[in-house]
Amino acid sequence: MTDILNALVILANFIFVPAMAYGSQLALGALGITMVYSILRFSNFAHGELMSFGAMTTILLTWALQSSGYSLGIFPTALLAIPVSILVTVILAVAIDKSVYQYYRKIRAEPVTLLIVSIGVMFLISGLIRFIIGPKDQVFTDGQRFIMKARAFKKMTGLNEGLAIKMTQGITVVTAFVLVALVFWFLNKTRTGKSMRAYSDNEDLALLSGINPERVVLITWVITAALAAVAGTLYGLDKSYKPFTYLSLLLPIFSAAIVGGVGNPLGAIAGGFVIAFSELTITFAYKKVLTYLLPESMAPDTLMQLLSTDYKIALSFVILVIVLIFKPTGLFSGKTI
Amino acid sequence: MSFLLGANMTGGYGGADILHDCTIGVEKGEIAVVVGPNGAGKSTAMKAIFGMLNIRQGQVTIDGEDITSLKPEERVLKGMGFVPQTNNVFTSMSVEENLEMGAFIRRDDITSTMEQVYDLFPILKEKRKQPAGELSGGQRQQVAVGRALMTQPKVLMLDEPTAGVSPIVMDELFDRIIEVARTGIAILMVEQNAKQALNIADKGYVLVQGENRYTDTGAALIANPEVRRAFLGG
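Above: the input entities. Below: the structure tokens describing the complete assembly.
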């Protein structure tokens, strides 16, 4: 019995808890991708950099707060900086829309043109970030590190294995949950939110109903940028901030959006967790778990790892391909790309 | 002069003209029906009146006011409602949300208008929480008409409201359209089911190649042997 519990604790510690946090970060990112896709009708490759920009702004503000002596006690100071960071990121997103995307909407550019344009924007923002904060690793987490320490857990339960929950993981999951609930409430209950869904559903009919497309687009950018700033900050808090990682984060985020069904907000959330859980379950070394579960004679000698963690990013690509082959509209039937 | 009038309209989608000096009008509380063979420019004439297509000559007036240069959404504010032939509902949204979106430009209380629409189409009240995309063809058309009625338009334009619905449903839709007209709304519609549509029409327009061929009351057009032979199948 204790063997089974120990095995479960290992799984919880190394798969469930990190996957919940990682999945929340992906879900927030994918939600932004899906919003832009369903309203502006293109795949926004600059989203990863927008997240990075949000995280960078948070870091700069956090440093400013720290040096002037502000802190949030056991919570990271970054939480205090997030609202301002959201504001700055929203301003950047709206400024880019007004100066770049608006022109392409006016000339009714093809979605693929907009996609290429978004790659240009991606390079622009990424250059801006490296110019401001540089390409190096930045750690900005402070406050209490753990909600639950491995040793405390062992003492509490008397088990051999410990379960650690980092403060950043807890904050990530809670924040993501609150934000997602807010976005869903907005889309389903408010007049403006409904008009966004209407515009996404049927652009011509939305126009006939007197819905102003520029207003819908503006609100989409505000929500997308806010989500990006929070998702980027949470990812940076959890894993340390490095500008380059946000480029490679683009793949799992897109996979999450497409796996869930692009254009479907619920799908984006589900997709985020699907990608996170599969990445972690497939690249996890099960040796210890199996040692607990199997009789001694059958204990494995190898790591019992399906794939090396180096392939983590590639894995989301594999999931993406599998979904596109067997269910092109995604798990929650979004639009076909 | 008619309440809504597209007078001497000439134009097309760029390239060759589709409409040639075409005139269509409708009075308040009346039903005007545009019929004609395929490619006669019926839908094009509707789009021209609603401003979804630029006309080179002629003008569109509502209640004497020239609206030729207005965009479709501005014409909605002038009291025009339009039900397109296809993609005329928000499929992913519930019936109720469709109606709410129809009333998007209104800032006042819309519940009484919504009740009126539900009175007109009782089935919609029953299905108000269901996504419009899950309804049958006839019910969808009711949602589409209901959506357009939510702005309390003075003119309702319908582009082939009975396309793809069964004859029974068609009769029912026509009955509802007559009811709408009785409330004082001007109704202008394009129909493939020419005979049935002319039956309920106060005024009928037969278009051929973008030109007015016959214009008369619905009854007179049905009685006209030439119209019968050429356009109504004998």
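Note for the figure: The mean pLDDT of chain A is 91.
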